[in-house]
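Posting this for the archive.
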Amino acid sequence: MSELILLVDDDQSLRRVTEYNLASAGFRVVTAGSGYNGLREFKSKSPDLVITDVRLGDMDGLELLEAVKKVSSDIPVIVITAFGTIEMAVEAMRRGAFNFITKPFDRDTLRLSCQKAIELKTLRLSNQLLSEEVNKLTGVLGMETANSAMADLLNTAIKVANSESTVLITGESGTGKEILARLIHKGSHRKTGPMVAVNSAAIPDTLIESELFGHVKGACTGAVSNRNGRFQTASGGTLFLDEIGDLKKEMQVKLLRAIQEREVTPVGSDSHDKVDVRIIAATNKDLRQEIAKGRFREDLYYRLEVIPLHIPPLRERREDIETLVHHFLNKLDAPSGVRFSKQALAVMMKYNWPGNIRELQNIVERCIILRKDSVIEAEEVNLPFSPVSDEVMIPEIPEEGISLGAIEKGLIKKALRISNGNRSKAARLLKIQRHVLIYRIKKFGL
């Protein structure tokens, strides 16, 4: 559906011409011949954009602008006038106008201004949706995170959300890869379309082709009628392919063709179905290592990894743990006053979190149910594995202090030297994944 514009102008002939030009550009237009009628139409129709003349007779156009902004500050307003001055333009902008256009103006000028105003409104809405969705991922409202890698990740997700580029999300199990995929979908122009998720590891090899591409009646056992696959179901939206590293090579070839050709062939059919989907894939595996071992196609990897996003494990963003704990207390509807003691939080900060955020949520939920009192103590946390020792590989700290970044950089350089520059081997020496090492190599300019 095209965007709705409210046009307010007391000049009937100019109003009709402007309405025609905007309608010709594909906009829906509702008009009003006075300020009060315009305000009434605004409240009843909820337009995406308001265009108002300054001189309206019963109400000044700048007063109408102010009234619109009081109702909804996100609605852009374009002010037009035949008596424009610099002072009037400055005042209109001060009150929140998107643009100030003097008459006479050509139709292309107004059309372009309308398009830019609506794009801005859409972008603001996308950012709001992203902010709300990121709350589920980070445990805080908005884009707040104390971890620089996480902040970079979220900023990149915002930038790429409204593109059509394929995204590959990597990270350990439990870090929130599907949640990140959903926030990208919600921030895209496809947000009104479906978001369809497929776990490649959960579907038997004999059924994966039918599940992705559909089948025709009689194509296989149990195919009693034609059935659409996930590609067809997701058309117009986003297809999230989770655990893509577990897909067998035979299916990798067919998936690559579907992505390249933007069409699929249902099992048992000779015809092709055109599909319009944005692909977001995710894996907890190092696909470069899988390629080296002959288990993953290199051409498919490069087709998927147009935009790589790596979610750091929880042990690498310990500074967010306390905030996440408070978030889960709220999310799980903990009784008022229930909290973790400082000692309990300290134990959680030392733990390695192999299950990441999912494991943290489970621990918080268990503690809420089994707590002895409103304050949850350290012994009640009862982590399943021993905490990581504080003393592992930590040098003496001199009185003047020491650079943590320099230590990390030095360890990476040493691992690269020992491995003769082999990044995969260096990553194994440092007990991190290869793409994490590459991120840090770029970070330190090595």
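The first helix runs from residue 12 to 24. The first strand starts at residue 4 and ends at 8.
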